[in-house]
Design brief:
single chain; mainly alpha; 5 helices; flat
């Protein structure tokens, strides 16, 4: 359901990006339309992390969440410091999306590890 909702928001966001930028920033910010559209395209990744987080909390693995988010934050800061001087706001855009993909990947690993443990315990 979350993924379907995210896909609807992607379509709406892609269409509405020029209007939103025009209202919020005016004509001087029209270069931001591309950035907003790329962020909107990444929405499904953000929506997929939520149920995985809640799953890990539900099964008592909430202790891994601060570790995952600390690692993602460190990665985000590193990418920003390393690449913003050369690539400007595109580096920040990449850092945000890559950090969320990293979070999703680490949450999937933790979910799979928990499920593997359950399967082994039931044998």
């Amino acid at each position: 359901i979350l993924l379907a909702f995210a896909l609807v928001l992607v379509v709406l966001g892609l269409v509405a990006a020029p209007i939103m930028i025009s209202i919020l920033g005016g004509a001087d910010f029209r270069d931001s339309i591309l950035v907003l559209r790329v962020l909107v395209i990444s929405l499904p990744v953000f929506f997929l992390t939520a149920p995985l987080q809640w799953f890990l909390i539900t099964v008592g693995r909430e202790w891994v969440l601060p570790l995952i988010y600390a690692l993602a934050a460190a990665f985000n800061v590193w990418v920003n410091f390393s690449f913003i001087p050369e690539y400007s706001y595109f580096a920040s855009l990449f850092a945000t999306i890559a950090s969320e993909i990293l979070i999703l990947f680490l949450l999937l690993i933790q979910t799979a590890r928990f499920k593997r443990g359950i399967i082994k315990a039931n044998r």
